[in-house]
Q: What sequence folds into this?
């Protein structure tokens, strides 16, 4: 029963998180500039709630958020869930300004907002992309050096650093949540949606970027939200870093392609490229150590493969409705 | 005999670096917005050189630098030495915008400038502040996690991350140089100048922030410039991180205070505070592992204590001339 503010609230993870916070009885200020999130992602559960308050504003314009928040007259914000970011990694590969503006400057905007509204805990949607390419080693929260190979990962890391200093300066707690690949609905981007869309356009063939051997861990969004709540409820330190992923070695892109094809177009032939990585800035294989979170007492319901299978079914269903 | 661009060229380290580059026969484009650097720092050696080209512009305004650089008609820039940053750490403790604007956004400005002028190597003046507080452990370049406790350190780390991704994207090489405390002339800030200034105002007493036990490694600016050239000449990888400091455990603030007092006002009584750290955001003790640079074949002329003693003499002399 307190006030939470979610940035990027109209995005894929945002609407799932807001739903959970509402079910827990909180008031939720949903901030989104609708640049990549959309009102269409917001389901009836949220739309009908008198405890969900939508503010169309960019985190880069903290004054607008401050003004709108004050107008709501709610009790002071206790928790900020900072999800707003560029989610299109390839878009930023040749233009650093995209991730600087939409990932880093949204984080600094959140701090400037809190400077005016008063301190609150910040839970930050970071990414395994901060690690860079560590080949087959499972990366731990304490692993160094961190060498992101995309502006996306770099600006997630820059945001983490800013929040670390802000804990020293004025905010009571920051939880850095380094996400594995997250799948589920409403899907707005990502490999599964991409395969579904392309197989619908041409059911005879699916062309896969890279040689299909790229292997990554996947977490279903329902498990992700559960893990986020778990960390927020239990993490004791003022600055905490957690990998959020499944305790397995992931699943290959070839396997995902096969699952999607089996569900949508079993006759489709799969065509692979020759390169081990799908695109520049992509880490072809990575393993995320999740022991720290498991030691705190959390486990996901679904493995990488189960998460992908469920998400494929959900995404096919979502598109049928659309 | 090539073209170098130095940002923050009118600052303490900048003018020392530019002098060295000119002596090596290079053309040097000196970029500074004179917000903390000043024309007064630029000595006659530089002022009289036909190979030094001063551009008064902020790195936050890359278009201005691009325009001015093109007008010079020099061969393409081969090396950028990116020193422009906020150097007043305490000023940024309560206002994140200072280090965001003056340290992080200058780095992104350098990249945007190179997007237009063409790729060049970037040598970045980073800081041991990126490590945060590791107590008595000597921090290595691979040490993790990096948890800067000031916005200053956080925005140096954010800049490093951006450059790491830029190497993947378009620049040929980035050398990250994590400086120890640098001392020498023309001194513009720092503990020695502070003690000299205050002892001149009141030769009877010197009040020291903190209990004087703060211990840090110091490098004389002449050794720093030598190390920077050494790394630029020898580092082979596309992304290299080096601690630049002396191979010793540093010198305490109490010891520095005694050296300054002995030189200026031997009768002065020293008064210390009770806290182990001088100010919020200060790491009271740190040790910088310098093995990586030593293994490459470099050693400084001066130890921490020798660097401080030389700098004290130089700063007293500098002020007498002022």
A:
């Amino acid at each position: 029963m307190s006030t939470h503010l979610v940035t990027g609230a109209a995005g894929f993870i945002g609407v799932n998180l807001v739903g959970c916070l509402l079910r827990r009885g909180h008031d939720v200020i949903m901030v989104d500039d609708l640049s990549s999130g959309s009102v269409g992602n917001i389901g009836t559960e949220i739309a009908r709630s008198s405890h969900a308050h939508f503010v169309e504003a960019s985190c880069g314009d903290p004054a607008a958020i401050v003004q709108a928040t004050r107008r709501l007259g709610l009790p002071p914000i206790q928790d900020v869930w900072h999800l707003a970011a560029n989610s299109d990694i390839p878009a930023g590969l040749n233009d650093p300004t995209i991730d600087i503006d939409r990932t880093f400057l949204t984080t600094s905007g959140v701090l400037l907002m809190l400077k005016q509204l008063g301190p609150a805990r910040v839970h930050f949607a970071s990414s395994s992309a901060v690690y860079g390419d560590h080949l087959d080693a499972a990366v731990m929260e304490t692993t160094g050096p961190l060498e992101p190979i995309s502006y996306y990962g770099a600006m997630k890391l820059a945001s983490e650093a800013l929040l670390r200093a802000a804990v020293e300066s004025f905010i009571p707690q920051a939880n850095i949540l380094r996400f594995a690949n997250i799948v589920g609905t409403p899907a707005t981007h990502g490999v599964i949606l991409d395969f579904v869309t392309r197989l619908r356009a041409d059911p005879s063939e699916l062309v896969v970027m890279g040689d299909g051997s790229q292997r990554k861990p996947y977490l279903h969004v329902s498990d992700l939200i559960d893990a986020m709540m778990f960390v927020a409820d239990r993490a004791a330190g003022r600055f905490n870093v957690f990998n959020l992923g499944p305790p397995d070695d992931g699943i290959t892109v070839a396997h995902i392609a096969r699952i999607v094809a089996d569900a949508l177009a079993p006759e489709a032939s799969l065509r692979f490229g020759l390169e081990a990585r799908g695109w520049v800035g992509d880490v072809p294989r990575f393993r995320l150590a999740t022991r720290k979170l498991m030691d705190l007492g959390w486990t996901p319901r679904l493995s990488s493969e189960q998460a992908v299978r469920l998400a494929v079914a959900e995404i096919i269903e979502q598109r049928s409705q659309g």
About this structure: Residues 3 and 75 of chain B are 6 Å apart (CA to CA).
